[in-house]
C-alpha cells in the first residue's frame, strides 16, 4: 500500500448556506474559488489541499471529511482487498473515479483518481 495513496486531495466542510459560507471564506479569509456547482464550492488554500464546501443535506451524514488521491485506483482497491480492508466497487463519473472504504475505526473514507491538468 505504501506510496499508492499520494496525498490528501480535498477536505470537506458541510455548510447550511452556500453563498454565505462562500462569501465568508472568500472575502474574509481570502481563499480564491477554484470551481463551483450548485452544491459544491472548492476553495484554494495554499498550494496543496483545497477546502471544499458542501451543501448540507446533499451528501450522507457520514460523508468523509477528506479524501485521498491516487493515480491508480484499481491497484489501490486490489491492495486494500489483499489487506482485508472493507471496500466498495469503484464508481466512475467519467472525469473522476471514487473508491469508498472503511478504516479500522469504522470511518467511511474515499480515494479519488482523476487526470491531472
Quickly list its features.
38% strand, 2,3-Dihydroxybiphenyl 1,2-Dioxygenase, domain 1, 18% helix, alpha+beta, 117 residues, nine-stranded mixed β-sheet, single chain
What does this structure look like?
The mean pLDDT is 92. The protein has two helices and nine strands, in the order E-H-E-E-E-E-H-E-E-E-E. It is globular, with a radius of gyration of 15 Å. It has a single domain (7-114), classed as 2,3-Dihydroxybiphenyl 1,2-Dioxygenase, domain 1. It is α+β, with helices and mostly antiparallel strands and 117 residues long.
Euclidean distance between termini CA atoms: 25 Å
Count of separate structural domains: 1
Second rung of CATH, namely the architecture: Roll
Mean pLDDT across every amino acid position: 92
Could you tell me the strand content as a percent range? 35-45%
Q: Classify the helix fraction into a percent range.
A: 10-25%
Could you outline the blueprint of secondary structure elements for this entry?
Elements: E1 7-15, H1 18-28, E2 33-36, E3 40-43, E4 51-55, E5 66-69, H2 73-82, E6 86-87, E7 91-92, E8 96-102, E9 108-114
Parallel strand pairs: 1-4, 5-9
Antiparallel strand pairs: 1-5, 2-3, 3-4, 6-8, 7-8, 8-9
How would you briefly describe this protein structure?
This protein is α+β, with helices and mostly antiparallel strands. The protein has helices spanning 18-28, 73-82; strands at 7-15, 33-36, 40-43, 51-55, 66-69, 86-87, 91-92, 96-102, 108-114.
